[in-house]
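Supplementary Note 3. Input sequence used for the single-chain structure prediction.
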Amino acid sequence: MANQFEYKSFTDDNHYIQLCAEVMAIRARAEQPMACIRTYGCQQNVADSEKIKGMLFEMGFGFTDNADEADFILFNTCAVREHAEDRVFGNVGALKNIKRRHPSVIIGLCGCMMEQKHVTDRLYRSFPFVNLVFGTHSLHHFPELFYNAVTYGKRVYETGIDDKTVYEGIPTRRDGQFKGWLPIMYGCNNFCTYCIVPYTRGRERSRRFEDVVREARTMIESGYKEITLLGQNVNSYGKNLEENVTFAQLLSEIDKIDGDYILRFMTSHPKDCSKELIDVIAGSRHISTHLHLPFQSGSNRVLKAMNRSYTREKYLDIINYAKEKIPGVSLTSDIIVGFPGETYEEFCETLSLIREVEFTSLFTFIYSPREGTPAAKMPDPYTHEEKSKWFSELLRVQEEIAAKRCASMVGQTVRVLVEGKTDKDGILTSRTSGNIIVDFPGDEALVGSFVNVKITKARNWILNGELADQ
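The predicted structure, written as discrete structure tokens, is reproduced below.
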């Protein structure tokens, strides 16, 4: 199919980066202008914040976690759940005192929440001290928007503008030294009835095959040990590109790059999860043996109401194929409890699927209505208290499964990537290829490297071990 999107290099806003650098060199309260960036929500938001930090770094900014010492404060927001939205409004309100103490500080908000009109209307009406608001489609415009907010003294709002373009070459300042996010596509075409993402991030658009592979190679050559490919539905990768490529082919091409690293990806949609993808993982050198495949509900009626476009039977078919082809595959998933109209009997179908698959872990949520989605208008006869009881029952079932699975690994020796220190002196935390956490005593110098650990003890969600002969 012909590509409906354009691809452009991030060059037009470069002169605004220089202009911002000149303005902030004068305006900064200290020797160097400082930025405080707080990110809410998913890994895609984290990746977006890393691009914003990249542009700010080019403007001469340093970074701080202390909002009170910042010249620029930015909240990158999430719209997926109501709790995250409430938390953002509460934290924005707390910035009023900082603005009173430091009138020159620029306060901004961006991200998915900003693509919802009821949110931006509330911000404009109730938070006049917010200087800058921009949506997910305006990331490449950030230097110009920031310059306008700084120099003209008026509130700058830019949302709802989707020019159907993928911008390459935006500067990136990654948070991790050896673990990194690599977006391969943006947006979503699925329109699950509970989800706001297609309305806030737009339609699916894949980055060009060669651009993704080039960035992956650069990261590997720069010493990154773990790379996670990102997309709202990575299994849809390539569908809007002119060349006939699939996500499985992209994974296979990156896996060919020499180096000592592990390759992960998220998130997969069951309707597009192919056996070709499973085969690529099974035959790979670097791809994680962890498959995160959200099923949301074990009831076919609820899945249809959710517009998930697959059945329980199709889901189990791909899960069983993965178990057959990938020895020791670690399976995780997302579940929504209490979708509008879901009965207890239908919830029990979810429990039976959990017992059948035996997931390593689950990300579980009680349904949260999002304004603007079809599900928010559906009849919902069950109370939050009833749904909370179901939720607790689900957690008990999964805890038993996780404890059993972890116990089965005692005595095994596993290869892990050491991620950092724990709160306990001398104890490091690490992660297996299957995304299972392993804590063990070791020297901090091991952080960022692969080691072998023998599992000595199992807890419900975490394993303990000791360094094995390397």
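The domain at 176-288 is CATH 3.30.750.210 (Transcription Regulator spoIIAA). The first helix runs from residue 14 to 27.
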